[in-house]
Design brief:
The chain contains eight helices and 13 strands. By secondary structure, it is α/β, with parallel strands linked by helices. The strands form four sheets. Strands 1-7-6-4-5 form a five-stranded mixed β-sheet, sandwiched between helices. A four-stranded mixed β-sheet has the order 8-13-12-11, with helices on both faces. It has a two-stranded antiparallel sheet with strand order 2-3. α5 crosses α6. The protein is globular, with a radius of gyration of 20 Å. It starts with a strand and ends with a strand.
Length: 352
C-alpha cells in the first residue's frame, strides 16, 4: 500500500483582495470595454466562484521557490532524510516565470531545482516534472503510487506549485480567479496496516475539449499583440466538469470497494465554489443520497485558484487542524478529485 507520511504547503504572504482590481480596465474578447463597472464585476465573481481574496508570491519568488518551501515542510513533517527519496515529482504548468516577465523557464526541470535546493546528493533520486493541468498533483501521486507498487521506488516526494498571477491577462476578468501557492506530500510503501491509496483513475479528453483552456492573446489587442496569456472558456469547462467529473468520482469510489456511506471527506480542486458544489451534488445524486454536511472543505474564498497547489495545500491545512469543521481522523476514507486543462480528470481514494 502507498501511504502519505508527511505533508507541507506554502501559502504566499501577499494577500490580494477584490479591491485590488478596482482600477483595472476589463475588456471583452473583441477588446471592447465591459459595460459593467468593476465593483459589479468583482461582486459577480465572488457570487460565482466564492473568491474574496487570493495570494500572490513575492516579487523575488518563483514557482520552484514555492515548491521547495512546501517540500521542505513535508520532509520535516515526515521526519525523513531527504537522501532517502527515490523520486521528486513536481507538478506545475508554466515553469518559473519571474516577476515582471511572461517568459516561462522550465530548463532545468523545476524538480531538479528543488532537489538542488534541498541539497540532495543521491544521484539516484530521480527528479522530473509533470504538466497535466490543474490535476497535475494528483497525477504525480498516481505515478508515485505506480512506482512504489512496481517496486521501482520506496519513497517519493510529490509537489504541486504554481504562480498563475504571472501568466494572466490583466484586461481579462478571469484573471481575478488565479492565485499562487504550493503543496507537497511524501509517499512511501507500507505493508503494516490498511492505510493508503485504495483506487485511482485518470482520463484525458482531447477532442474539442482540448481548447477549453489555452494560451491566447490579450484582450488589449493594441498594446499586447504578440504576448500570450492563460485563457479559458468558462462555460464549456463548467458544463464539461458537471457532465464528466461526478461519473469519474463514482467509478473511482466503486473501484475502491467502499460505499458512499463510508466516505468521510471529498478534497476537490479549488477551481470555482459553485462548480465544486454542483459536482459534489451530482456525485451524491448518482447514489441517490443527500450530500452530508461538511463533506467538502473549501478555501477558495481566501486563497483563490492556485491550480496544482490547491489540493495538497488544502490537505495540509486539514491535517494541521487549521480548518474549522474539518478534520481527518484515523480510519477516514477520503476521495480526492480534480479537473483541468487537457481536459484532464483524475481521482484517488485514500484511507487514513
Amino acid at each position: 500500500m502507498t501511504k502519505i507520511i508527511g505533508v507541507g504547503n506554502y501559502i504566499p504572504s501577499e494577500t490580494i483582495t477584490n479591491l485590488f482590481f478596482d482600477q483595472h480596465v476589463f475588456l471583452n474578447e473583441q477588446g471592447i470595454l465591459l459595460k459593467e463597472n468593476n465593483a459589479s464585476i468583482t461582486d459577480k465573481l465572488k457570487k460565482i466562484t466564492g473568491i474574496e481574496e487570493r495570494r500572490y508570491a513575492r516579487s523575488t519568488e518563483v514557482t520552484s521557490d514555492l515548491g521547495y518551501i512546501a517540500a521542505r515542510s513535508a520532509i520535516e513533517n515526515a521526519k525523513i532524510d531527504p537522501e532517502t527519496l527515490d523520486y521528486i515529482i513536481f507538478a506545475h504548468n508554466f515553469g518559473d516565470v519571474r516577476f515582471g516577465t511572461v517568459q516561462s523557464d522550465m530548463v532545468p526541470s523545476l524538480a531538479a531545482r528543488v532537489k538542488h535546493l534541498l541539497g540532495i546528493k543521491n544521484n539516484f533520486c530521480v527528479a522530473y516534472d509533470v504538466v497535466f493541468g490543474c490535476p497535475g498533483w494528483i497525477e504525480g501521486v498516481i505515478q508515485a503510487n505506480a512506482f512504489i507498487k512496481a517496486g521501482i521506488a520506496k519513497r517519493c516526494l510529490v509537489i504541486g506549485a504554481e504562480t498563475l498571477s504571472r501568466v494572466t491577462d490583466i484586461h481579462d476578468r478571469d484573471s481575478m480567479i488565479y492565485a499562487d501557492g504550493a503543496g507537497a506530500a511524501i509517499l512511501e510503501a507500507d505493508s503494516t496496516d490498511d492505510v493508503g491509496i485504495k483506487a485511482h483513475l485518470s482520463a484525458s479528453y482531447t477532442l474539442e475539449e482540448k481548447d477549453y483552456l489555452y494560451f491566447g492573446k490579450s484582450y488589449n489587442n493594441e498594446n499586447c499583440p504578440t504576448i500570450r496569456y492563460i485563457k479559458m472558456d468558462g462555460r464549456k469547462i463548467y458544463e464539461f466538469a458537471l457532465l464528466n467529473v461526478p461519473d469519474a468520482m463514482k467509478k473511482c469510489l466503486d473501484n475502491s470497494g467502499y460505499s458512499i456511506s463510508d466516505l468521510n471527506k471529498i478534497i476537490i480542486h479549488q477551481a470555482n465554489e459553485k462548480m465544486d458544489e454542483a459536482i459534489v451534488s451530482r456525485f451524491y445524486q448518482l447514489y441517490e443520497t443527500p450530500v452530508p454536511e461538511n463533506i467538502m472543505p473549501m478555501v477558495i474564498h481566501k486563497l483563490g485558484n492556485s491550480s496544482v497547489a490547491t489540493i495538497p495545500s488544502l490537505l495540509t491545512m486539514i491535517l494541521n487542524d487549521e480548518l474549522e469543521h474539518h478534520k481527518i481522523e484515523k480510519g477516514d476514507v477520503v476521495l480526492f478529485a480534480s479537473v483541468g486543462a487537457g481536459m484532464n480528470i483524475n481521482a484517488f481514494v485514500y484511507k487514513f
